Amino acid sequence: MIKLLKKWWLSTTVFTKIALSISIVVGILVSTLYIILTISQYHNMDNSYRQRLTQIGETIANDERVIGTVRSGTLSEDIVNYADHLERLNDLDYIVIFGSDLTRYTHPNHQLIGKPYQGDDDYHEALNGQITTNIGNGTMGRSIRAYVPIIDPNTKRVAGVVSLGTMVDAYYRNIYQSVIFGALILIIVLTLGCIFSYFISKAIKKSMLGMEPIDIARVLQERKAMVENSFDGILASGDGRVIVNNHYISEHFNLSVGDILTDKLPEFDSINYGTSVQKIFYRNWLISKSPILMKNDTIGDFYIIRDVEEIEQSIQSLHSATKYGQAIRNYHHNYLNKLHVIYGLNELGNYEQLKIYLDRLLNEEVKDINAILVLVANVNVAGVLLEMSENFKAEGIKFKLYISGEISNTMTVAQTMKWRQMVNRLYNYLISSGVSKVSTKLIETKKSLIITFTVDINLINDWKENNVLVTDRLIVYYQSYEKDVPSNVSNITNRR
Q: Is 306 helix (H, G, I), strand (E, B) or coil?
């Protein structure tokens, strides 16, 4: 049974769990309070009723007519009527007055008047001058009663006893009615508690966006995975502090969860919602800022951050890939056309024109393009070389490219982007320097990719990069496949 309940509890919704838990707690609290109040009320009613009997009995015992009757020992119709009146007036079942010799002077059953008192021996304490209350048996049955002594003011001795009370059935009937009334109140309170728990559970469920705890846990794990594995900077702040960040933010901005955002990066204080370019740490960053809303209230800010230079490099990489794709398409198209021409000249037997046509196909420009497409496996590197060849040609600069063997696709994305950026700077530098002839050589070793530029004029060495060597008419750029770039590129080129 316990296992079934546990299985049901684990499979039920959080709404049911919360509503049921609140209802059970309210039910236990209200039931406990009801039991305590019922017990307390019973004792209060019992004590109150006993005191009431005692007060009525004292009033009767102090009546001069009653004292005179028990003193004289004579029966009196007036005393009988007086007792009957008080029974009706105080809703009592009986009032019995008897003397010290136990002779009854009043009784609800008038036939028993004048006869000896019968019942339990609880009246002995009253004959000794003490007031007592108890539940006992008499001629009328079991009752709650009081014994009050009648003191003769002349002799100061007990002249008789007043016994009065209510039958137990009637007494408990009153208590039962009180308990029923309390039970109705209990049911009403429990019903209100269940209704209250329903709305509380519904409000909690709404604040949880209608999700179960397992759904929330899964969403948090998914969010964590997306944030940690994003190539963009992910940052969220609340109350001015960092509440979510990823490795990109930690690496570039040295921020940790709990840091005050504007203390470390004052620039963020002036960033507006939307997308904008901000200069931080002497670099341009593309920052998208949006509010974190809960019930239409802004509780924080969310940022997506990307280095502008990285975006530009990505665009350039796509441009290189596009160039490479166009070159392959043109190469394939031209290849088919050339095959048709060669086939046609050969079929016609026009061998002299065929020789001229083949010589033209083997010119330097075609060699360069074919070499790039065939030997270079890295699309970005091939795209840069094709773009460089077009730019030199557009500027009227004679260009030759030598590729020393096959170039693998060993470089990482970051290394490729760095290589592309540097080569673009180098050939733009050569164009601006006024060269008219450029010979470029691409060499791959086991651990690096080297490109050299030999030109026809003397160059000014104003390059500060460790992996760029500039002499009078030679530029050498070395890109390591390893993390650490050698401090002196000339050592590598000398060993070559």
A: strand
Q: How far is CA 177 from CA 38, 74, 134, 433, in A?
A: 12, 43, 22, 111
Taking every pair of Cα atoms in the chain, the longest distance, rounded to a whole number of angstroms, is: 172
- Among 60-74, 111-125, 462-476, the range with the most confident prediction by mean pLDDT is 60-74
- 117-154 per-residue burial string, b: 16 or more CB within 10 A, e: under 16: beeeebbeebbeeebbbeebebebeebbbbbbbbbeee
Which residues have C-beta within 8 Å of that of residue 320, sequence separation ≥ 6?
379, 380, 382, 383, 384, 386, 387, 420
Between CA 322 and CA 330, with CA 324 as vertex, the angle to 5 degrees is: 100
Task: Tell me the β-bridge partners of 207.
Answer: none
pLDDT of residue 149: 92
Please state, in angstroms and rounded to a whole number, the distance separating the CA atoms of residues 471 and 452.
11
How many Å apart are CA 311 and CA 320, to the nearest integer? 14
Q: Hey, what domains does the chain have and what are their CATH numbers?
A: 14-209 (3.30.450.20), 232-307 (3.30.450.20), 363-495 (3.30.565.10)
Q: What are 376-428's pLDDT values in tens digits?
A: 888 888 888 888 888 888 889 888 888 888 888 888 877 887 888 888 888 88
Which residue type occupies 402? Y
